[in-house]
Amino acid sequence: IRADLRALGIAGEETTSLLLYLIFTSRVLRRPISAIVKGESSSGKSYVVKKVLSLMPVEEVRDFTRITPASLYYMPDGELLHKILVIYERQGAAGGDYSIRSLISEEKLQLAVAMSDPKTGEFHTRRRVVQGPVCYVETTTELKTHAENETRLFSMFVDESETQTSAVYDVQNRYYTAQGKGEDDRALKIARRHHAIQRYLERIPV
Questions:
Q1: What does the longest C-alpha to C-alpha distance in the chain come to?
Q2: In contact, 2 and 13? CB cutoff 8 Å
Q3: If we measure between CA atoms, which residue out of 4, 3, 24, 56 comes closest to residue 156?
Q4: Cα dist from 94 to 34, 89, 101, whole Å
Q5: What's phi and psi for 31, nearest 5 deg?
Q6: Please, which residues have CB within 8 angstroms of residue 196's CB and are 6 or more apart in sequence?
Q7: pTM
Q8: Could you read off the pLDDT of 146-165 as tens digits, one per residue?
Q9: Pairwise CA distance, residues 177 & 188, whole Å
Q10: pLDDT tens track for 57-78
Q11: CA 42, 45, 47, 48 torsion: positive or negative?
Q12: Nearest one of 38, 48, 40 to 9, comparing CA atoms
């Protein structure tokens, strides 16, 4: 896995990328792990998340730029059950903070909606349930987020050292020169292999 992550173009960030791989894989567990990747703007945090996420089967991933306060409550049945939910920037998740926290902790969302009967005009309450659990990951430039979020999300920090920056330049140079020819095809083959592996996984009670 470590070698494949490097081959995808992730410079350094070995601990972060391996942890993300394990966290995304935890979606199949009874209690998936959720995380928040922290770093300065343009530090590469979203890049690392996207690269590791590319090794997960597309049908297991629900990634969004932004969600509204009510959006998760109206997801189709089974849409989030043992899935990976990713919001690439913390600002995009702010509106859905409460629903995200509830989904992580309670492993489901329950919404009571008042609806009127078209024939009688009388109102009745309909109960809507969105089943979890879910593996949730977001990125942020904030050192600390909402206190209740911090207790539910495993915090990871990207490497912002000069050595890391130099390693990133080396990878970019390789990709945009003759040395990088065929790298897209190689990345696709790597991703397909991991997709196959991930699809074989199932939760076994112990």
A1: 72
A2: no
A3: 24
A4: 16, 9, 11
A5: -125, 85
A6: none
A7: 0.84
A8: 667 778 888 888 876 666 66
A9: 19
A10: 999 999 888 888 888 988 888 8
A11: positive
A12: 48
